[in-house]
Amino acid sequence: MKKISIIDSHTGGEPTRIVIAGGPDLGGGSVAEQLKIFCAQHDSFRSAVVNEPRGSDVLVGALLVSPADKSCVCGVIFFNNVGCLAMCGHGTIGLVATLAHLGKIKPGEHKIETPVGVITATLHTNGEISVANVPSYRKVKAATVDVPGVGKITGDVAWGGNWFFLVSDHGRELTLANVESLTELTWRIRQAVNAQGFPEIDHVELFGPPQNGGDSRNFVLCPGKAYDRSPCGTGTSAKLACLAADGKLVEGETWIQESILGSKFTGTFRWLNRERGEVIPSITGTAHVNAETTLLLNENDPFCWGIR
Ligand code: PYC
Q: What number does the ligand 1 atom closest to the CA of 92 have?
């Protein structure tokens, strides 16, 4: 029987399952190199941790790995129901809350190595967590795609640690009651956008008016067709890059992004390279640890490696 120690948390309603022991040996290179090995050789481990019957489509998993950059407190590989993620904002907030829960970090700044670069997380004394993300930028402004069954949809293509297609003009109300139709719409948009030859878009993000005191509400469709219960850290980073490029938000100003649940992240940015439109976004939110347990993997269980 293989045993995997995990700690679960949620960030604004979006769950993160951190593997703290029992993960595969990935050879100890950079986290980007370890990600390649994890994806190529340990996909069944990924599925066993996050997929049913132990998990669900909504879970984001995170494997703690040793960082090549020794100034980092740890390295991390994020994954979901269908594969690996380059980066995850809500998951990083969950990771920091988990490290604090384990007594491994105290309030202050902590560097973390991800597959797409080193990020700096700050654990504040009031329990809030800020993540200064990887450089983020808009690649394409106002790309129009023909979405079968929907019509023409215009959005921006932007990087915030994952690739996003950000759409403001969609005519839908962003409420929980509409989750099924929002999922269907964003899934169709994703397929249409990815048929156009942009960078492979993993996430589609719809924006609408705030309903809970923020600046905007969003609906974010993740690659495995689950929607993000949080405002999405990498999606908010992509949004900040677009707002910066359009001059709609200035350096240091805050942007409060609401999720479809109404949970909030506070975003801000500093310019990294104004000419290239590159910003360093910072996302602040809170996470709550809600389970610590051991997963048991029994090869005689027909669904030992998850339902895929
Ligand atoms: O917070 O960056 C994020 C994220 C990505 C997928 C789910 N959450």
A: 1
Q: What digits encode the pLDDT tens for the residues 64-77? A: 999 999 999 999 99
Report whether residue 59 contacts ligand 1, using a CB cutoff of 6 Å.
Answer: no
CA 180 and chain centroid, separation:
21
| Per-residue pLDDT tens digits for 6-52 | 999 999 999 999 999 999 999 989 999 999 999 999 999 999 999 99
**Gap from CA of 248 to ligand 1 centroid (Å):** 23
Q: How far is the CA of 171 from the centre of ligand 1 (A)?
A: 24
Ligand 1 neighbour 160 (Cβ under 6 A): no
Determine whether 72 is an active site residue.
Answer: no
